[in-house]
Design a protein that fits this description.
Number of strands: 8
Strand order of the largest sheet: 1-6-7-8-5-2-4-3
Number of helices: 5
Structural class: alpha/beta
Strand content: 25-35%
Shape: globular
Oligomer: single chain
Radius of gyration: 15 Å
Order of helices and strands: EEHEHEHEHEEEH
């Protein structure tokens, strides 16, 4: 996935549909940010690592998207995996979510570099066009490729407790 800073910064597309936040990072700060986002009413779909490749995850996410709910997807933190997480696992997570995102999602928030790379590859994005830094180190971009989505990316080991919730609120402010 390439990253470009467009010379003629076009405004990002409007968010037309629910927002999906994917937290593949298992750092303590990511876990705390996810808990904060859940406390603000986002539908939380926890997925154990063994179920990432199964059909249960897309069905659970699709059910929430069909109700036009914003969704947070996290890897179940009761697993023995620690730290940033497993690059292949989050790539598989992106592949499992891709059809749901293509069908119904208006914007994405991706936490963790491997998470962002895995999700964007699964969506066949060819690059990101940087739009704005919404907080230090938290970037709004638009995807390039077969479809354009506004996407906010951030490191899994970065930010304040409210950073993830702030990112979702930012995208909500971009709704029609």
């Amino acid at each position: 996935v390439s990253v470009a800073l467009p010379a003629d910064r076009h405004p990002p597309p409007r968010v037309r549909g629910p927002i999906v936040a994917v937290v593949g990072s298992l750092t303590d700060i990511s876990r705390a940010q996810a808990r904060r986002l859940v406390s603000e009413g986002v539908t939380h779909v926890r997925v154990p690592p063994a179920e990432v490749r199964g059909m249960a995850l897309p069905r659970r996410v699709d059910a929430a998207l069909d109700r036009y709910e914003d969704v947070l997807v996290t890897i179940d933190t009761t697993s023995p995996i620690d730290g940033e997480g497993d690059a292949q696992l989050v790539a598989d997570l992106g592949a499992a979510l891709a059809a749901s995102v293509r069908r119904a999602v208006g914007g994405l928030v991706l936490t963790g570099g491997d998470t962002a790379a895995g999700m964007l590859r699964a969506l066949e994005c060819t690059g990101l066009d940087l739009v704005a830094e919404i907080e230090p180190g938290v970037v709004l971009s638009t995807t390039s490729g077969s479809r354009v989505w506004p996407v906010i990316t951030k490191s899994g080991s970065f930010g304040e407790i409210a950073t993830l919730a702030n990112a979702v609120r930012y995208l909500r402010g971009m709704r029609d």
